[in-house]
Design brief:
By secondary structure, the chain is an alpha/beta fold. It has helices spanning about 30-45, 75, 95-100, 105-110, 120-125, and strands spanning about 20-25, 60-65, 80-85, 90-95, 130, 145. Strands 5-2-1-6 form a 4-stranded parallel β-sheet, covered by helices on one side. Strands 3-4 form a two-stranded antiparallel ribbon. Helix 1 crosses helix 4 (about 105-110) and helix 3 (about 95-100) packs across helix 4 (about 105-110). The radius of gyration is 19 Å and the shape is globular. It starts with 20 loop residues before the first strand and ends in an 11-residue tail after the last strand.
Length: about 160
């Protein structure tokens, strides 16, 4: 005799989703570890009402993007490519040169790559704000400091 399952998935309503603002300091953080944890907060995976097809996540403000670091030879070997759409329009730039020029783009690209590659991912990406220094225009939102899990095995 089959049992009746009572596990129903509850879809949260838009007005019941509590969106908060978090502040992340990228100083001395490893790029990939920071990006995966920020992407998880943007998606709302840290909340009990997480729903994969809905935006239940929070806003995240990342400051000190120019002080992020990567391990190994990535500053010289990691490449960032962009294309103008014209023939011969491929531009290639190393991590270190892009970090000098536009450090915000490095953090944005890393986080965007960890979000869904569809309309939901584009909606989630709009809730990410990245700034070069420690100054940001979001003081009115009463930002909460987001403590990232420090799993850096190199520093003991």
């Amino acid at each position: 005799m089959p049992r009746e399952m009572n596990n129903k998935t509850i879809t949260p309503k838009n007005d019941s989703i509590d969106r908060q603002w978090f502040l992340v300091d990228a100083e001395n953080q490893t790029l990939g570890r920071l990006a995966s944890q920020v992407a998880s907060v943007l998606r709302g995976k840290n909340k009990p009402n997480f729903t994969p097809h809905l935006d239940t996540g929070d806003f995240v403000v990342v400051v000190n993007a120019e002080k992020i670091h990567v391990t190994g030879n990535k500053p010289q070997q990691k490449l960032y490519r962009r294309h103008s759409g014209r023939p011969g329009g491929m531009k290639v730039e190393t991590f270190s040169s892009l970090q000098e020029r536009i450090p915000e783009r490095i953090v944005e690209k890393a986080i965007k790559g960890m979000l869904p590659h569809n309309a939901l991912g584009r909606q989630l990406f709009r809730k990410l704000k990245v700034y070069r220094g420690s100054e940001h225009p979001h003081a009115a939102q009463q930002l909460k400091v987001l403590k990232l899990e420090s799993t850096n095995a190199l520093v003991k």
